[in-house]
Amino acid sequence: MHLYILLLKKAAFSGSEVFPMQHRRLYIVGIDSAPLWIIKRLYKKYKMDGFKPFFDLGFIYDLESSLPPITPVAWPTIYTGKSPAEHGAHDFFTMTEKYEKKLIYYDTDLRPPFWDVISDKGIKSLIINPPAVVRPSRKANVDMVTGFPLPQSYSSEALESEAASSGFSGEPEIEEGLRNGSLQLHDSAYLYSESIRKRAEFSSRLIGSNDYGLVFVCFTETDRMQHYTLGRPEWEDYIVPLYKGISDFIEWLIAYNKKRKGEWSLMLVSDHGAQPTHSKFLVNSWLLHKGHISLKNNGLNADWNKTDGNGIGAAFRFGHASEPDESEKLLCAASGSNSIHAYCADMKGTRAFASLSNNPVGSIWINDRRFSEPAILDSKGRTALIKELSEDLKSIKDSKGKRIVRKIHDTRSYYGKAGFIVPDIMFEMSEGYTVDVSSHSEAYVYATERSRSGDHTRYGIIGAYPKRHIRLKPRMSVADMAEVVTAFYSGSG
């Protein structure tokens, strides 16, 4: 740790060579769900030279993600430096008082992203596929193509025409194809490597023909592919082509800028990390077995009794019956978009429940007066139940005697007085585990994960090259990124 801090101090920009803002160029390459362990492994094993400067002449470290560590939460925190409670995007969905899951998006008007902030200083930006941004910037000097989870849109007709001429249409949708068998994993890996190549070529054309002070290009294909492959023995076969395409783009950026005058820096950032997962915790099954959930009609529907090889029956649903709209269908499986069905829980007899997304950080709500059919009516009962559930979660062990819950998080200190119904307990799973808020089993509270063999972790990456231009702090989190960007243009970075 002492060596780490010493290196950071040596690398801090001295201020002896300050260029005017308009002569400083910052390039940010976003790699959704890229952890340091994957970058290191692929760089060393496959000679991906785009990553080499960060290890040899720059920095590349862990970056702590948000709670939960998922795309619609972490990226807006990177853009704004604000917490989920402040920027308003705390998941793919929000929980309503009637137990409904309502789709939400990050509102760039509520908390402007760093490219809009620096545009007021005269910095021209190119922003390609920023995740969680679904509406183009209104700033005249921001060229933008929006990103995941909706189809991309453009800040100008000229930009849309340029994308069409490049054959660039964003990240392909593979979810349905994998589900119905029309796509295999190797097909998806090819489609993704092609979309990465086209995004890189499209971005290169724009960079080469415009004087941008800021460029942010994000690649989200890595996250999607890792969900399906990281737990497989041959996972590198699917992942390597994606990272190789990104590495090639980084090499081009470095070569291009070495030929130009003025100060420039290149940064790498990911919103969270990734890990192989082999087991999932069926949290609503656990709550049901503990007596905290009450069912309607004294039981489950008939098809709940059908189980697969994991002992998992039909999905456990909270929320009133409704059909997901087209935007919801575009969300990946991690969003839980398939969890909108008629509920079968008797909420008046349900003391606590889990909902929203499936990921390594689970969320539990106490069914109190914030909801339309509360079972817990006073603060004393609520406090006692939170304590009971927290202690019980800490004590759960799998068949090998391993504790499956790593940490319980204090949601009140994290979210504060947010404008949504805050979960009462957030618990972080141990390595190799993820949470399942949808599936149910009468016999199990954890089961083998088959369909998705990879999930998120709390640590992504932050990297900088050349190191003399960027000031990075030890133990950085996603909330620090916006400050690093704006400091670069103020002359203090």
Write structural notes for this entry:
33% of the residues lie in helices and 17% in strands. The protein is an alpha/beta fold and 493 residues long. The protein folds into two domains: 2-275 and 456-490, Alkaline Phosphatase, subunit A (3-Layer(aba) Sandwich); 278-451, no CATH class. The longest helix is centred in the middle third of the chain and has 25 residues, at 185-209. The strands form five sheets. Strands 2-18-8-1-7-5-6 form a seven-stranded mixed beta sheet, with helices on both faces. The relative contact order is 0.20. It has helices at 2-11, 36-46, 52-56, 71-80, 84-87, 114-119, 157-166, 175-180, 185-209, 221-229, 235-258, 283-289, 326-329, 379-395, 411-415, 481-490, and strands at 24-31, 59-64, 93-95, 101-103, 125-128, 142-145, 214-219, 263-269, 273-276, 279-282, 352-354, 361-366, 405-409, 425-429, 433-436, 446-448, 454-457, 459-465. The radius of gyration is 23 Å and the shape is globular.
